[in-house]
From TrEMBL:
InterPro entries: Dimeric_a/b-barrel (IPR011008), YCII (IPR005545). It comes from Roseibium litorale. Pfam families: YCII. Residues 1-115 form the YCII-related domain. The lineage of its organism: Bacteria, Pseudomonadati, Pseudomonadota, Alphaproteobacteria, Hyphomicrobiales. It comes from the Bacteria. This is YciI family protein. SUPFAM superfamilies: Dimeric alpha+beta barrel. Belongs to the YciI family.
Length: 119
């Protein structure tokens, strides 16, 4: 079953780029990437640029509206994701708990919708 692991954190609580703490966090990500790839679980994963670089789009009454930045003002921002294929939720949780940002942020584990299930 496919799961999306959505990684949220408050930028104020993240290790600062270039510090030893940032290096340790990134090392944790690299190790987890290698592990999930070696175990055949990782389908894809990426970090995202800061929320301020985003553009939000919506269509209302046939009109397209765009705005800079995220639509909702929240402290925690979506910082990255993993798309994994594992047997069940327990296996997804076992990977999610290893995401370094889980120590100061939140990881949302969500099943991916299967629009063409096997009979």
């Amino acid at each position: 079953m496919k799961y999306m692991l959505l990684i949220y954190s408050d930028p104020a609580n993240e290790p600062v780029y270039g510090t030893p703490e940032f290096g340790k966090m990134m090392e944790g990500y690299f190790k987890l990437n290698e592990k999930m790839q070696a175990e055949g679980a990782m389908l894809s994963g990426e970090g995202l640029k800061e929320a301020e670089t985003s553009t939000t789009l919506r269509v209302r009454g046939g009109k397209v509206e765009t705005m800079d930045g995220p639509f909702a003002e929240t402290k925690e921002h979506l910082g990255g994701y993993y798309l994994i294929d594992v047997p069940d939720l327990d296996a997804a949780l076992a990977y999610a708990v290893q995401i370094p940002s889980a120590e100061y942020g939140t990881v949302e584990i969500r099943p991916v919708m299967d629009y063409n299930p096997a009979p």
